[in-house]
Write a structure and sequence with these properties.
The complex is a heterodimer of chains A (756) and B (269). Chain A is mainly α and 756 residues long. Chain A has helices at 3-15, 20-35, 38-68, 111-114, 120-130, 162-167, 179-206, 227-265, 267-272, 278-315, 329-354, 360-365, 367-379, 390-393, 398-408, 412-442, 444-448, 456-465, 473-493, 501-526, 530-533, 543-568, 573-588, 591-618, 624-637, 642-662, 666-687, 693-696, 708-727, 734-741, 749-755, and strands spanning 71-76, 88-89, 92-93, 104-109, 135-138, 171-173, 697-700, 703-706. Chain A starts with a helix and ends with a helix. By secondary structure, chain B is an alpha/beta fold. Chain B has one domain (2-268): P-loop containing nucleotide triphosphate hydrolases (Rossmann fold). The radius of gyration of chain B is 19 Å and the shape is globular. Classes of the chains: A mainly alpha (756), B alpha/beta (269).
Chain lengths: 756, 269
């Protein structure tokens, strides 16, 4: 493209600056529109206000119901207890043995009362099964003959077999399928244990031993946490979860109505042909959706807090009376602060997703996938033992969640330390989501496409007939998904580490084959040019030696990065032990074979698939950033191990940028190869006795490592190389640029006029 | 006021692959003129008009409205054009007054001027009866009036009516044609697309007959009649269409029967 067209484009971008007044106008209209909608009002305002009190009422009633329905217990064989401390008092267990005796209904039988027609055990079984009793306690007649019954005389002659002993055991019949029954078992077991303790004490004192002597020490629990922390710990887990789930729901429904619904009703086109810019429309709608998301979350959280504190107070739940009654209000404000960016993030995502739908009904179907993606991020911080650290602070949403929890619990120091990381991650996610939403509004296919009938046969014909030079973005996504899914299942089939080099070769080759195969097949079948779709082009010759230099000088930084990652997310000892035979085999195998296997094959296969076919598809339709980021992420995930995945993703970004600048995967293959080859040969170079080695390498207990000065210098050279790559004009083909680029380029009117 | 040159628009379509909806058409419309775009459903009329209103971007060719390029100065174009289509609906939960006022404010009109303009338009289009009726409760005719008022609120020099009489009863349609005539008197530049021949005959100064993305012929009604030696306009129209199909068949360039285009194309474009 010529300079003039670039200037025109820049001018157009400048004119595209959204005006605050228009954004505000659109925002206000969307808000008013949603507030006039009964359904929206019901979901965001009426439902939360009504829902929690209703649920609270129900809970209270259930609580009353359970209190009125005590567990029923039947004890059979009361006559078989002899010479023991009293188990019963009247029609109940002795009061010193049981807490809350009201919650238990007791019925006692003598053994011979029931043993008339059929075995007692069968009858008891039936009772529990039918639910007549939650629990039946059988005290068999043999209990009387218990060796330990009465005096301690004869304790030395304890020669009875375990079998016989069982006959004299007390039996508790319960049904694990019924909660009531399980609770009854627990309570009666407690009663029996207390009873046994009494009995032991009695016997010991019978032979003149003070029972106290058997307990050398006692302990007592003291919770030093102030009351507030305990409340905070409870609420800081529950409340963010509730709020985020509602923020998501609250964002989604307005988003569907404001985009898919408007498309369906035809009002979106009206707005598009008004002087409002696309960006103004997006920002206005995004603001409205985010407002509703926050409102929903706040109303829900508020209503839940109010109701639950009342209910808890009423029920006396929470150990120390109404300790959980009211959450600490001031720290909760942090939650509201965190809600703003997260609501915006969810809203932007919902808006972008909803833009794909042609109708509200279609839009509703997209809620589930969106929830499936975001819910794990909200669930993760709920897992026990997840705390704020460098690793978790870098996870979107989860990091923010944990940061808020730290703030609520009053750990201001820790929280402050992680604020920059969480803010960066949240900020970039927000930026990406907003960008995606904006892109969706600029895409004609998204706004006006679809609506046609889909048919398998027609689709297959379309795939074949409308093959293009390179993959389409959809084909690229499909290829990435196929590669990652097959890799996942293939990894599951690996049960143990092979012990010889041939086995290891197989282990290394398998994923590479699985990575390159889908790309090759799709490139052959679905595109008209295998070479173009795999981006196998000759770049400017200078980039080739530069790629090797870049590979060599990048390696120290890559090693450093890997070390840092291992420090943040340490490899488990188990995993390290599992990898050991692998490393040993690699170290003892011939060098050339190792380089071929670990460097050349992955470099070619992975680059063909990720920077070739998939990148080639994703880079189309203004998707430069998308191509770089997504191929890097896919490349990372394909490595399977978390630590490697992160390092590979970072590497993937650099490789993606270089292939974008050079228009070819050849430099990437060279860089990838150099990097891998150095990784597997570092030990050998250090051991080779080459005098130059010590200039660059030092021996540490963890193996060879780069000299700090070389790491620094190499970093400088690598950055210089990167800068040079930035100046290269990408290698393209005439036919391709015609097909891929010009469609979206601004047309120079004067040129067309001249030719006309 | 409107210049269109070699305008082409292609879509990716599952059924037909790369489908040319508009195939290198050129025309221009002057001030104080009503230009009629006549063609069956799926001929590409809506696509052309959507490109003119900057909702779609052309694949090739250029189009300017009031001197502004639809791609480069799309914001300026939208400021100088009023677009009424049966696809441009009105909001269900806004009253007629609010709806028109909203678009006036989007055009950046000052409150005082906007108020005056609103009163004028509501009088002119006889909309005062349903000022405060929300869109969801309006009849088709009322909605169409609101759409027209919405498109005219900023007094644009160019107005585009895309199948604007579709679904209107005779009275309302007649009324609309009257409004369009009065706009011509006011020196506006108008494009009027339809598949109803009588409307074109009664209203338009110049006509272009579109079919399969191409303009088969264009000119004043008289010119067309003379050129094809056919007084009955309906016969003239069908004659042109069948002549075109025959040419395509002879040229071996017709891949799909034209009947397949109908219906599907209308949803698409």
């Amino acid at each position: 493209m010529s300079d003039s067209s670039r200037a025109i484009r820049r001018q157009a971008e400048l004119a595209d600056k959204p005006r605050a007044s228009a954004v505000w106008l659109i925002y206000m209209r969307e808000m008013r529109d949603q507030l006039r909608d009964r359904r929206t009002l019901f979901t965001i305002a009426v439902l939360p206000i009504m829902l929690y009190p209703l649920v609270g009422m129900l809970l209270l009633q259930i609580a009353q119901f359970t209190r009125q329905n005590p567990t029923s217990v039947c004890v059979i064989g009361t006559e078989n207890i002899e010479g023991a401390p009293p188990l019963f008092e009247g029609e109940m267990f002795a009061p010193e043995l049981i807490e809350q005796p009201d919650a238990l209904e007791l019925l006692t039988y003598r053994w011979d009362e029931l043993s008339a027609d059929r075995p007692v055990r069968d009858k008891a079984n039936e009772w529990v099964k039918s639910g007549a009793f939650d629990l039946v306690v059988l005290i068999p007649p043999a209990f009387k003959n218990n060796e330990l019954m009465g005096d301690l005389v004869g304790t030395e002659t304890k020669s009875t077999s375990a079998e016989e002993n069982r006959d004299s055991d007390i039996e508790l019949l319960f049904n694990v399928g019924s909660d009531q029954s399980v609770v009854a078992r627990q309570r009666v077991a407690g009663v029996l244990a207390a009873w046994r303790g009494e009995w032991i004490k009695e016997r010991l004192s019978g032979v003149g031993i003070d029972a106290e002597m058997l307990l050398p020490f006692e302990w007592s629990d003291t919770d030093i946490a102030p009351e507030r922390t305990r409340e905070a710990a409870f609420w800081s887990k529950l409340l963010p979860f509730i709020m985020l789930v509602w923020a998501m729901t609250g964002a989604f429904y307005p988003a569907v109505d404001l985009v898919a619904g408007e498309k369906e009703r035809g009002t979106l086109e009206t707005l598009l042909c008004s002087p409002a810019l696309r960006s103004e429309i997006v920002w206005g709608k995004l603001g409205a959706v985010a407002s509703f998301s926050m409102l929903t979350a706040l109303l829900n959280a508020g209503s839940m807090l109010l109701t639950s504190s009342l209910v808890f107070q009423h029920m006396g739940v929470g150990g120390a009376g109404a300790a959980l009654g009211s959450p600490p209000l001031v720290p909760m404000l942090w939650l509201f602060v965190a809600l703003v960016p997260l609501s915006c993030l969810f809203s932007a995502l919902a808006l972008a997703v909803a833009a794909m739908a042609q109708s509200s009904k279609e839009g509703q179907y997209y809620l589930m996938p969106l929830m499936m993606v975001t819910l794990p991020l909200v669930m993760l911080p709920m897992l026990p033992g997840t705390t704020l650290n460098i690793g978790t602070s870098l996870i979107p949403v989860s990091g923010m969640f944990l940061l808020v929890r730290a703030l609520v619990e009053g750990q201001y120091g820790t929280a402050l330390f992680y604020v920059p990381m969480v803010a960066t991650v949240t900020g970039s996610c927000l930026w990406l989501a907003a960008r995606w939403a904006r892109r969706q509004f600029e895409d004609e296919a998204v706004l006006f496409g679809g609506g046609e009938q889909w048919e398998l046969g027609m689709w297959v014909r379309h795939l074949w007939r409308d093959r293009q030079i390179a993959a389409t973005p959809a084909q690229a996504y499909a290829c990435g998904a196929i590669v990652l899914v097959t890799l996942f299942f293939a990894r599951l089939t690996i049960s143990e580490m092979p012990q010889d080099f041939a086995g290891i070769a197989k282990l290394v080759m398998m994923p590479q084959v699985l990575i390159v195969f889908p790309a090759l097949i799709m490139a052959t079948m679905l595109t008209t040019s295998v070479r173009q779709s795999l981006r196998l082009r000759m770049p400017h010759w200078t980039t080739l030696p530069l790629a090797v230099l870049f590979g060599v000088t990048l390696h120290p930084s890559y090693v450093m990065l890997s070390k840092m990652i291992n420090h943040v997310y340490p490899v488990s000892e188990q995993a390290a032990a599992a990898m050991k035979p692998f490393a040993e085999q690699i170290a003892s195998a011939p060098w050339a074979a190792v380089v071929l296997l670990m460097a050349l094959v992955p470099a070619v296969c992975e680059e063909l698939a990720f920077r070739g076919f998939i990148f080639g598809g994703l880079v189309r339709e203004k998707g430069k950033l998308r191509a770089v980021v997504l191929t890097a992420v896919m490349f990372g995930i394909s490595h399977g191990v978390l630590q490697q995945s992160i390092a590979a993703s970072v590497m993937g970004v650099a490789l993606g940028w270089i292939t974008l600048r050079t228009g070819s995967i050849v430099p990437c293959i060279l860089i990838h190869f150099t990097n891998n080859a150095l990784s597997v040969s570092l030990g050998r170079i250090a051991d080779s006795g080459w005098s130059g080695a010590s200039v660059f390498l030092t021996q540490t207990e963890l193996g060879p490592s780069y000299q700090p000065f070389w790491t620094l210098i190499s970093m400088g050279i690598a950055v210089t190389c990167l800068l040079y790559f930035g100046t290269v004009s990408p290698a393209t083909d005439e036919s391709e640029s015609e097909l891929l680029g010009s469609h979206h380029d601004y047309v120079d009117p004067t040129a067309s006029l001249a030719s006309a | 006021m409107i210049h269109v040159q070699h305008l082409t628009k292609t879509y990716e379509d599952l059924q037909r692959g790369r489908f040319v909806a508009v195939d290198g058409i050129s025309f221009s419309v002057q001030k104080g003129e009503i230009f009629g775009l006549l063609g069956p459903n799926g001929a590409g009329k809506t696509t052309v008009l959507r490109i003119l209103s900057t909702v779609l971007e052309p694949t090739e060719g250029i189009a300017t409205v009031a001197g502004y390029d639809v791609v480069r100065d799309s914001a300026e174009v939208r400021r100088h054009i009023g677009f009424v289509s049966n696809n441009t609906a009105i909001y269900d939960r806004m009253t007629a007054w609010e709806m028109v006022e909203y678009f006036g404010r989007l055009h950046g009109m000052k409150a005082a001027r906007l108020k005056g303009r609103l009163e004028d338009l509501f009088d002119q289009l006889r909309m005062n009866d349903f000022r405060d009726v929300p869109g969801g409760k309006m009849s088709t005719g009322m909605k169409q009036k609101v759409s027209i008022a919405r498109a005219m609120i900023h007094d644009p020099p160019v107005l585009v009516f895309d199948e604007a009489t579709l679904g209107l009863d005779v009275l309302v349609a007649r009324n609309l044609l009257g409004v369009i005539r009065s706009l011509r008197e006011a020196g506006k530049c108008l494009i009027f697309s339809t598949h109803i021949m009588s409307e074109v005959e009664r209203l338009c100064d110049r006509i272009a007959i579109m079919y399969c993305g191409k303009i088969l012929d264009s000119g004043t009604l008289e010119e067309l009649r003379d050129r094809h030696r056919e007084d009955d306009f309906e016969e003239l129209f069908f004659g042109l269409l069948s002549q075109h199909e025959q040419e395509m068949r002879v040229g071996g360039r017709i891949d799909h029967p034209s009947s397949a285009n109908h219906g599907v194309g209308e949803q698409l474009v």
